[in-house]
């Protein structure tokens, strides 16, 4: 699709993918296991969208784009109903608004809000069985990192609590317009089948506090909980956040929860 006189908007972090083979490759990672609706975040000029439409003509597709100029363009050129093209900030979008309860997410995401996008996905994880997304490479590495590594952190633990994650492939800068300063990578998230058996609020709080002081032992960083009965009997207190696996963070959360 050609587009003339379009003003790139820095504030929306617009880097358009030029390489159609990469676009196709990303879309082909959608498994369509247990869902038939896909929501694309930030379709831009629709390079991924085109493949979503041609490869999967029988599936439902919704696009969420913040830039009004792009919305105008997409509504004009895409062969889908206008109410599938939603002009909205994804971070303020609630799937219940359009009665969506089971859908995958795809996108070449705006990198300046990648963590917030992930947190938003985690908020609605019960509706989202799968996500295929392009992130800044460094963020993709952090999401897929494991304990003991330097890149292991809040995003790794929280995303991997709910999803099995996979680093799919790295994408070079030169396939975007304009050329970004950083490399990119595509990852997949597939929701874990087992139910999370612990309190989401405590888990998020505990993981954030522990990693915000990652060099401290947990008995020092988790002082917030020191008044709960038998605090000292909680396991892992002599370890540091980066030494705990995702499973161990869940165990820790449960231990805090039962004592509270
Ligand atoms: N998918 C396109 C564009 C990627 S650039 C491609 O691969 O070429 C990121 C896109 O996200 C832009 O279209 C930008 O306008 C949009 N965007 C930025 N912030 C957004 C937000 N908060 N909600 C929805 N879309 C957003």
Automatic annotation (TrEMBL):
InterPro entries: KsgA/Erm, rRNA_Ade_diMease-like_C, rRNA_Ade_Mease_Trfase_CS, rRNA_Ade_methylase_Trfase_N, rRNA_adenine_dimethylase, SAM-dependent_MTases_sf. It comes from the Bacteria. GO terms for molecular function: 16S rRNA (adenine(1518)-N(6)/adenine(1519)-N(6))-dimethyltransferase activity; RNA binding. S-adenosyl-L-methionine binds at residues 17, 42, 65, 89, 108. Keywords: Cytoplasm, Methyltransferase, RNA-binding, rRNA processing, S-adenosyl-L-methionine, Transferase. It is an enzyme of class 2 (transferase). It is found in: Cytoplasm. CDD domains: AdoMet_MTases. SUPFAM superfamilies: S-adenosyl-L-methionine-dependent methyltransferases. Residues 22-193 form the Ribosomal RNA adenine methylase transferase N-terminal domain. GO terms for cellular component: cytosol. Specifically dimethylates two adjacent adenosines (A1518 and A1519) in the loop of a conserved hairpin near the 3'-end of 16S rRNA in the 30S particle. May play a critical role in biogenesis of 30S subunits. Belongs to the class I-like SAM-binding methyltransferase superfamily. rRNA adenine N(6)-methyltransferase family. RsmA subfamily. NCBIfam families: ksgA. This is Ribosomal RNA small subunit methyltransferase A. It comes from Blattabacterium cuenoti STAT.
């Amino acid at each position: 699709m050609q587009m003339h006189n379009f003003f790139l908007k820095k504030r929306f972090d617009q880097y358009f993918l030029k390489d159609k083979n990469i676009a196709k490759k990303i879309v082909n990672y959608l498994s369509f296991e247990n869902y038939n609706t896909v929501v694309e975040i930030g379709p831009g000029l629709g390079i991924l969208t085109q493949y979503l439409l041609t490869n999967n003509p029988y599936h439902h597709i919704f696009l969420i784009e913040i830039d009004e100029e792009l919305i105008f363009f997409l509504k004009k050129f895409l062969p889908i109903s206008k109410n599938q093209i939603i002009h909205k900030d994804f971070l303020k979008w609630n799937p219940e608004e359009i009665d969506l309860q089971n859908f995958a997410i795809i996108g070449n995401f705006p990198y300046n809000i990648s963590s917030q996008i992930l947190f938003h996905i985690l908020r609605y994880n019960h509706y989202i069985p799968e996500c295929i997304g392009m992130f800044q490479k460094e963020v993709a590495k952090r999401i897929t990192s494991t304990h003991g590594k330097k890149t292991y952190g809040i995003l790794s633990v929280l995303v991997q609590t709910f999803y099995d994650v996979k680093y799919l492939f790295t994408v070079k800068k030169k396939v975007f317009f304009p050329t970004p300063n950083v490399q990119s990578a595509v990852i997949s998230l597939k929701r874990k089948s087992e139910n999370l058996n612990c309190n989401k609020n405590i888990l998020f709080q505990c993981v954030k506090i522990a990693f915000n002081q990652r060099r401290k032992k947990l008995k020092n960083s988790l002082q917030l909980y020191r008044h709960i009965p038998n605090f000292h009997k909680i396991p892992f207190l002599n370890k540091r956040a980066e030494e705990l696996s995702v499973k161990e963070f869940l165990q820790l959360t449960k231990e805090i929860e039962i004592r509270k």
